Amino acid sequence: MPSPMDPGRDRDFIRVRPSGIHGTGVFAKRPIPRGTRIIEYAGRRLIKVELLEAAARGERELTYVLNLDEDLAIDGAEQGNDARFVNHSCEPNCEIYIFDGTPYLYAMQEIAAGVELTFDYKLQSAGALRISRALSRELFPCHCGAPMCRGTLVALPKRRARTGRATPAQLSPPQD
Ligand SMILES: C[S@@+](CC[C@H](N)C(=O)[O-])C[C@H]1O[C@@H](n2cnc3c(N)ncnc32)[C@H](O)[C@@H]1O
Ligand SMILES: [Zn+2]
Fold first, then answer.
1. Nearest residue to 41 (alpha-carbon basis) of 81, 69, 3
2. N or C terminus of the chain with fewer C-beta within 10 Å?
3. Three-class secondary structure of residue 65 per DSSP
4. Atom 23 of ligand 1: nearest residue by CA position
5. Among 87, 136, 142, which is best to mutate for testing ligand 1, by the most ligand atoms less than 8 A from CB?
6. What are the DSSP calls for 123-170, one per residue?
7. Which ligand is the nearest neighbour of the Cα of 123?
8. β-strands 87-88, 118-119: how paired?
9. Distance (Å, whole) CA 165 – CA 57
10. Closest residue (by CA) to atom 11 of ligand 1?
11. Closest by alpha carbon to 121, among 89, 80, 144?
């Protein structure tokens, strides 16, 4: 949701420090207005297939990799900046937007000083490989602490409505 008042440059809004979600995180050092472009997600551009092959061979970590499009990704581990430390939340306050092939972190809401910045990683399975909800939660657990945490960094498909008569029991929230 880039604002029409987009300053077109990254200002000094953030501080990197230990996070309660995971390892190192990124925090607002002063109030950040909704719609602010906070920082570019910098890093080396790589061809996704090559990246995944290198990861499968154990030659490369995917920790700081961000998808750009079908073919390209950015690896913040190389030539990256503080944006690589932004943790995931299932109820995020930021979002990544890509302009002319360059990804930026934007504030989706007013963010108070001291609050951790997060975006929804929406991890996807590679190629035809699909993993179950249970395995997603086991392999990529989420510790964001949000009330509606889905338990994983993976983007889970929406549950399909069950067929049959709607009874009160079926109208209650889905259970695992
Ligand atoms: C881009 S890094 C984020 C920075 C990371 N905290 C660090 O110290 O390097 C992504 C990694 O952080 C961890 N992470 C981020 N958000 C998380 C969350 N909500 N729950 C659990 N781990 C998370 C995962 O290990 C993920 O692979
Ligand atoms: Zn979560």
1. 81
2. C
3. strand
4. 22
5. 87
6. B---TT----HHHHHHHSB-----TT--SBSB-PPPPPPPPS---GGG
7. 1
8. parallel
9. 50
10. 63
11. 89
Task: Using alpha carbons only, give the angle 151, 65, 86 rounded to the nearest 5 degrees.
Answer: 60
* Ligand 1 centroid, distance to 23 Cα (angstroms): 7
Instruction: Please give the number of the atom of ligand 1 that sits closest to the Cα of 84.
Output: 1
164 CA → ligand 2 middle, Å: 31
Q: Which of 86, 68, 78 is nearest to 16 (CA)?
A: 86
The predicted model scores a pTM of 0.86
Tell me if residue 69 falls in helix, strand or coil.
coil
Q: Quick one: which atom of ligand 1 is closest to the CA of 25?
A: 6
Both tokens of residue 93? 């306050």
As a whole number of angstroms, the distance between CA 96 and CA 49 comes to 22
Query: What atom of ligand 1 comes closest to residue 76's alpha carbon?
Result: 1
Rounded to an integer, what distance in angstroms lies between the CA atom of residue 157 and that of residue 40?
A: 29
Three-state DSSP at 89 gives coil
Structure tokens belonging to residue 107: 């504030």
CA dist., res. 140 & res. 142, Å (int): 7
Task: State the Cα–Cα distance between residues 132 and 156, nearest whole angstrom.
Answer: 9
Q: What is the pLDDT of residues 23-47, one digit of tens each?
A: 999 999 999 999 999 999 999 999 9
Residue type, 81: N
